[in-house]
């Protein structure tokens, strides 16, 4: 059974992982930080004297007016680089023109196989043109602009053009519906939209413009203009006086747009996160601190070099796309690779084909994608030359150790370090992560806090717990890229993140975790998903990882269901790998397997096989819905972020 020293109110944790992977010597030899002692000294400085550490890092950016104070902290409200002024777009573009004018900034491939490369010089010109267009439409600093685009270079152009003129962008992921646009429009008070006729996804057109039209149907004319990028060339109606084409607007626009200076705390963007219940929260990020956080983490965590071809597979509709497709890498002068479409179009080896042809060196992706590739079979990556890769990364969920091992061996060829990065939309940038030249990694843990991050595991009273005791993950000091508020709802900001441990000035992440004897953080799942089985609190991720470690299993999601005796019983929803067949025998074997790897307390009472799990559009498993299915209730919660509605009906029909 689990750790007897664990107090009942703490989350128990007993999945043991003994594999350790030190940074490869040749990687460490070339890395920006390759000696653990250098890291330790710098980390110590960053948490003991954050002003000194961050001022030094910030000096690598271009400021047009100096700051007077690094941090002004009136908990829970932070101001970073008070009095400082900068232009975020100029830091991502103009600053590189002398040295990198002809270096590719974006190498893009569309789903149909078309492609485009924009050098820093070209990207700068495009951004200036579009900035001039926005200005000509009357967009002023502080105005909100909705961007609803496919993953094309123009998405980055539009974001940077907003930043250049001080407009606040709010990117809405292209997979969201007309209703989602409507809600976000109303909440943000945006008066302008940039969209496309459509985007390509699995050979089909995603009707972006039609969704915008539907969202605007009874919007009372609050939106004064819609600019439409022509991507898929499907017929779209244009509303006279409101809608215009991107190519018409930019044709005559000047490629010069002087970068104005904005206050360090000028809002940069609002990004809506769905959360599991309630209306989406508009997470507000500002300029100087956000740019610094993403610049600095991209530099150290990906150990970027000038000749890297860097690919973060996220869509710009997510924070990962903001921080690690656009702002972080471009602030570093990197070459960013972007791919528009689905990973299995035209075939399940599309990503490996992209890596081979574009000689990609860094690939940063999500555990959900890795588990899908495992399910599709090893033959797909095996058919490609992936030797250009030197570093891999993951984000979004705890990575199951077996998925980590697969990524390490089948994609990384056993030679690439993996950076498992823990962070949130709210944190803006990496918070807990290995640095590839110095941190020995272990499959399944995001390892140690990044510079300036004071993370801890605490009990319900806010007291730090000892090694290997589960509790709540908090951040005890402000950091530059932290959210500043929830747009238009300061009370909700305070309540959501600062009520639990606010008296102590701790930010509550909502995650449960434990810290091992080496100081490594293991995320065990969202606190809301924690199970209570016969008085034992169990996180979801360890039971799921134990299931995924079974050779027949591709993916697993674990939830509790009311149980008269135990309080909650454990129900596991499982998808099997290609070539495997669900059966009563397999279900029994899986129950035994979990019992043997974690302990009898975690043994599932029920295994339910399914073709697919309900996920958000960013790939996170929606355990909240599974909870309702498991207890035989009607699904009542919000399902608007569900990727495939059909899955619910199938799940409800599935049996033990
Ligand atoms: C939540 C934040 C950050 C960009 C993508 C998701 C989970 C994220 C990890 C990781 C374990 C992780 C946490 C976190 N999460 N990365 N490396 N290991 N869990 O952003 O939608 O704001 O979600 O994702 O539960 O709180 P998000």
- Radius of gyration from CA coordinates: 24 Å
* Ligand species: 5'-O-[(S)-butoxy(hydroxy)phosphoryl]adenosine
* Number of separate helices: 21
Strands of the biggest beta sheet: in what spatial order?
6-5-18-17-19-20-21
- Compute the number of strand runs: 31
| Gap from first CA to last CA | 26 Å
Helix content: 25-40%
Question: Structural class, from helix and strand content?
Answer: alpha/beta
**Sheet with the most strands, sense and barrel status:** 7 strands, mixed
The CATH architecture of the domain at 531-653 would be: 2-Layer Sandwich
Summarize the structure.
Helices cover 31% and strands 22% of the residues.
Q: Can you describe this structure?
A:
With 656 residues, the chain is of the alpha/beta class. It has a domain at 531-653: 2-Layer Sandwich (GMP Synthetase, Chain A, domain 3), CATH 3.30.300. The protein is 31% helix and 22% strand. The chain has 21 helices and 31 strands. The strands form nine sheets. It has a seven-stranded mixed sheet with strand order 6-5-18-17-19-20-21, sandwiched between helices. A five-stranded parallel sheet has the order 8-7-9-12-13, sandwiched between helices. Strand 30, helix 19 and strand 31 form a beta-alpha-beta unit. The longest helix is centred in the first third of the chain and has 17 residues, at 120-136. The two termini are 26 Å apart. Residues 1-8 have low confidence and may be disordered. 5'-O-[(S)-butoxy(hydroxy)phosphoryl]adenosine binds next to helix 12, strand 25 and strand 26.
């Amino acid at each position: 059974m689990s750790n007897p020293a664990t107090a009942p109110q703490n989350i128990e944790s007993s999945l043991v992982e003994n594999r350790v992977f030190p940074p490869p010597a040749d990687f460490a030899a070339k890395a920006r930080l390759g000696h653990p002692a250098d890291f330790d000294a710098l980390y110590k400085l960053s948490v003991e004297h954050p002003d000194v550490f961050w001022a030094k890092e910030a000096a690598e950016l271009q400021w047009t007016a100096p700051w007077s104070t690094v941090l002004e902290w009136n908990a829970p409200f932070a101001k970073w680089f008070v009095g400082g002024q900068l232009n975020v777009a100029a830091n991502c573009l103009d600053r590189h023109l002398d040295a990198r004018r002809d270096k590719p900034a974006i190498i893009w491939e569309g789903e149909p196989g078309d492609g485009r490369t924009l050098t820093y010089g070209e990207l700068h010109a495009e951004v200036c043109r579009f900035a001039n267009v926005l200005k000509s439409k009357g967009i002023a600093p502080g105005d909100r602009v909705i961007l609803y685009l496919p993953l094309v270079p123009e998405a980055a152009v539009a974001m940077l053009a907003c930043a250049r003129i001080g407009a606040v962008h709010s990117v809405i992921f292209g997979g969201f519906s007309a209703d989602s646009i409507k809600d976000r429009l109303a909440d943000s008070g945006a008066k302008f939209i940039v969209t496309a006729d459509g985007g390509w996804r699995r050979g089909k057109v995603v009707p972006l413009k039609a969704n915008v039209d539907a969202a605007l149907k009874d919007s009372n004319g609050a939106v004064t203009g819609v600019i439409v990028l022509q991507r898929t060339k499907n017929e779209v109606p244009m509303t006279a006086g409101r809608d215009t084409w991107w190519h018409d607007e930019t044709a005559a626009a000047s490629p010069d747009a002087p970068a104005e200076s904005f206050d360090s705390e000028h809002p940069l963007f609002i990004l809506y996160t769905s959360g599991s219940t309630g209306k989406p929260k508009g997470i507000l990020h500002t300029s100087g601190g956000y740019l610094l956080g993403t610049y600095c983490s991209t530099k150290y965590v990906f150990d970027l070099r000038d000749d890297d071809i860097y690919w973060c597979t996220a869509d710009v509709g997510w924070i990962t796309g903001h921080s690690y497709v656009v702002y972080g890498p471009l602030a570093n002068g990197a070459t960013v690779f972007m791919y528009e479409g689905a990973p299995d179009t035209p075939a399940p080896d599309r990503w490996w084909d992209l890596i081979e042809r574009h000689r990609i060196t860094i690939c940063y992706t999500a555990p959900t994608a890795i588990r899908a590739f495992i399910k599709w079979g090893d033959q797909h990556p095996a058919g490609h030359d992936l030797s250009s890769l030197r570093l891999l990364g993951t984000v979004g969920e705890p990575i199951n150790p077996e998925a980590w091992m697969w990524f390490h061996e089948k994609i990384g060829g056993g030679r690439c370090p993996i950076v498992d990065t823990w962070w949130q939309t709210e944190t803006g940038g990496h918070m807990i992560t290995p640095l590839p030249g110095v941190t020995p990694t272990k499959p399944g843990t995001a390892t140690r806090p990044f510079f300036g991050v004071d993370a801890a595991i605490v009990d319900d009273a806010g007291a730090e717990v000892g090694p290997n005791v589960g509790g709540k993950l908090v951040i005890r000091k402000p950091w530059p890229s932290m959210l500043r508020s929830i747009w238009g709802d300061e009370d909700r900001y305070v309540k959501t993140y600062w009520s639990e441990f606010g008296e102590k000035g701790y930010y509550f992440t909502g995650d449960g975790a434990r810290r091992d004897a080496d100081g490594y953080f293991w995320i065990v799942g969202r606190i809301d998903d924690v199970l209570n089985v016969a008085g034992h609190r169990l996180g979801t991720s360890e039971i799921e990882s134990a299931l995924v470690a079974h050779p027949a299993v591709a993916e697993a999601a674990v939830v509790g269901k009311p149980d008269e005796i135990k309080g909650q019983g454990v129900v596991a929803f499982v998808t099997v790998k290609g070539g495997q067949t669900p059966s009563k025998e397999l279900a029994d074997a899986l129950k035994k397997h979990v019992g043997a790897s974690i302990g009898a307390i975690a043994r599932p009472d029920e295994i339910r096989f399914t073709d697919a799990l309900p996920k958000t559009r960013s790939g996170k498993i929606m355990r909240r819905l599974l909870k309702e299915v498991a207890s035989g209730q009607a699904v009542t919660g919000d399902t608007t972020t569900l990727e495939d509605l059909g899955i619910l009906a199938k799940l409800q029909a599935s049996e033990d």
